[in-house]
Design goal:
9 helices, alpha/beta, five-stranded mixed beta sheet, about 290 residues
Amino acid sequence: MNKKLFKIFLVFFLAFSSVAFAQTKNAFNSKQERERLNVAGFIEYPPFGTFEKRGNYYIFNSVFKNIVSELAQNANFGVNYFTPTKKTYSALVDGVNQGNYDLLLGAYSNTKLYERVELIFPSILNNPVTVITLQENAKNITNAEQLKNLKGAVCIQDQFTDFVSNQMKGYNLEYVETPYEMFEKLFTKKVDYLFMTQYYGLIESIKLGLRKKLSFSKQSVWNMPMFFGVSKFSKSRKILTQKLSSYSNLPQNKAKLEQNLHDIIRDYEIQYQGVVPPNFSTEELSQ
């Protein structure tokens, strides 16, 4: 091949390579953008949503996280979880409504906060509301009607449906900021009982070393089905709806989620084993 022909070949080769590279790069970027799944959830509400700080990073944990991983793998999605900010939980739900997030991990039906979120039926998990009392007082309460003659407490960090919130108006309740304040009022006899969602109540009592001092009602007062929520503005709305609905319909998947829930609670028990409970009164609580 003479020099003139070689130069012509080289020019055409470089030109073709540049075009091919640009097309491949654009296709890759387009594919990557299309496959990113932005996920939001509860902020400090274990086991449904909480953060663990590791160095300069926050790791989001949720009982639903394994499901998202399965979904991402099967549908070829990448996953971006929201990061903790000064935004409130309701602001995050607004972000779902505006299309900033594709998927919401945990939402209630017939509740104003979620009225613009597409809920995926059937419910994948039930979040029951239970009555918590001191062990020595548990035998004195046999039904929910008795509670109306007593004083109770509710934590504003807990998550209830509008129906349950309205039902609670029929009880003499004090609303407090944190689970710590709730348990303090119970142990100092300022209230007779607590209304808490069962799993949140279990975990918060375990973290404070109080679980063995408390009695959780065997029957729930209210049952609250919990759903996945999909943004109506998500580009992946169709596939998310199809995949999550199919997943939630399989009994073995619900059983797997419930097992994961029990495993999380067990992990909290191991992590906080031996923790010294708070001294809520002049006499230190015995373990």
